[in-house]
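RETRY 2/3 - previous attempt timed out on the joint model. Re-submitting the same 754-residue input unchanged.
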Amino acid sequence: MTERPAYSPGLAHHFETHAQQHRAATLGIWLFLGSEIMLFGGMFMGYTIYRILYATAFEQIAAHTHFWFGTINTALLLTSSLTMAMAVHHARAQNYQKSGRWLVPTAVLGVAFLALKVVEWYLEYRENLVPILGWNFDAHGVAQGPARLFMGFYFVMTGLHAIHLSIGVCLVVGLMVLLRRDKIARENPSKVEIIGLYWHLVDIIWIFAYPIFYLVSA
Amino acid sequence: MAPTLKNYLQDGSTLRSWFLSTDHKRIAILYLLSITFFFMIGGTVVGLIRLELLSPAGDVVSSDTYNRLFTIHGVIMVWFFLIPSIPVTLGNFLLPLMLGAKDLAFPRLNLLSWYLFIGGGIFTLVAVVVGGVDTGWTFYTPYSSTFANSAVITVAAGVFITGFSTIATSINFIVTTHTMRARGLTWFRLPIFVWSLYATSIIMVLATPVLAITLVLLAVERGLQIGIFDPSLGGDPLLFQHLFWFYSHPAVYIMILPGMGVVTEVIPCFARRPIFGYKPIAYSSIAIAILGFLVWGHHMFVAGESIYAMLMFSFLSYAVAIPSGIKIFNWTVTLYKGRIYMKTPMIYALGFLGLFTIGGLTGLFVAALAVDIHVHDTYFVVAHFHYIMVGGMVSALMGGLHFWWPKMTGRLYPEFLGQVSAWTMFLGFNLTFFPQFLLGYLGMPRRYHTYPAEFQVLNVMSSLGASILAVGYILPFFYLVWSLRWGKKAARNPWRATGLEWEYADSPPIKTNFESPPIVHGPAYDYDPQKEVNFD
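RETRY 2/3 succeeded.
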């Protein structure tokens, strides 16, 4: 550890060097992502157990989710991860203008995903597939209990994922504003990188959710 | 030595300078006040419980009220006192000092975690005011999700929010330990307290999110009737128990590992010997953290598990005894040929040794499949975990609080009263909980407000012990507050202890902890039993 330089913009008072600050920020976000995986992991675990218990019923009811919505959304999100990676790449090269330009499609793709998701939920509502309260639930010929369970997991998991994605979009928009105002100090590119990591995590969770809700019927 | 810079307590006296402070030391004080407040509530509630159990008939409160009392006792003591206790107070205060850092890695996150803690606490207290919750602290489904007629969602929300405060703290601790150690401070020169906080943080960051999602699923089942655990909707209540204990068993180690860390600081100082077996103690903390994730099924031996799962969970629970035993033996050997000073923190630490050993050994009883079927859900279990939680963790917290009190406040506590209260707590504790082992073995179930008349003698002993125990808590509260104003001023190192916080920081420390970044040249616990010392 070297002595703290006298003038060091973007370096918090309790760190000695930018490298140390960067290490701390990166390790911090990775730990947070680990806790996120445990959060979603609990639900994936629950789903898996019921998937084994009610194998056929889950396959039958999964045929009623909207395959094309899910697939297009997967493509949108994967593409957004690419644009996010480009933004991080340019931030690392300290090219903040280009970095900011790549954030625009990232946010747009995120919003498009959410919009499609909302339409999809509405269609499911129309088809009586929402198993909450006393709402009319149509299991489409599948056993009621397992069908409700499957759709229950579907709504809770895609709902929680959508909340995470909305937070991601807000973060990206906030980042765009900061970059536009030149508020990201040159010595501290961690912010773009950290939000990038979060974005990829939200993407990865979707990659796991997509097959268990849309592909099990095949 | 006259401090040249203002200490952290003098650095602003406005409310703003406290409630918006990002100084880890001030946040530790905020936390200390908060958990004391919650401890008082939890303690008052249990006073009513012990009052009710003085007589076999249910004559003080109704059974319904009784359910709410033990639930709120459990919820508050577990999530608002024990889980945060040592990490957020002593840990928050000492971690940067022990590492030679100016603050934790994320000071604002640290402040946020306190606000989340308070936010969660408010939710929980609101639930108490609007009628409480009667599910027990474990929130078992389907009772909690379908039948309970109380504020389940409000309390679950409180615990959920507090969970994020725990996660924030643990991320902060892990990152700080990795990235902010002073020059020369290698991993195996760290005080063991840092190792134990590190192991605790690993559990916190991996287990707490699972509790969070479990509570979310419980809330959507209760609020929206999405059946995840309800058998009438196709779900399985056992899934709830698996998810819940996947968090709550590791959480038990959140509640004891930091205490082990405190004891490892106190014993070498008052035996004037380097800790015996540094590496085994350090590694055993990590081993406990890992094994702790693999034993949750031992809470469900009578709930319906396959015999093979039960065998594995039983075996793995036994395995936890190995790292725990390693610690116990190393602490004991540290005392051998030491120059032992029976100061207040040492009395607490030795109390910890005895009480934790009893708690740990009875843990093996309940990990044995056949014995567990006999004592499951009886007072035997209650006594077992109170020996760990109260006998272990609270003793360690009190010991640590006395040990670092001069560092935190710049004042010495009155030694005689300290020793009186340490002994009072030890005696009161044993009188309260040892009879409960007998009660449980004889078959008294937990969570009932009435019991057969033949159990009365033991219950009266327990209630009497509880009132002695209460004196053991109230006494320190008064003399510690007294010492803030009238206590003797503390020098930099009143215990002649090793460690950066004693050797390089003032009592109380300045805002940035050290005047210049300290450099470490040797191993921790550099004590010499040949040398006579005079404490202040």
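Residues 15-208 of chain B form a domain with the Cytochrome C Oxidase; Chain A fold (CATH 1.20.210.10). Closing ticket.
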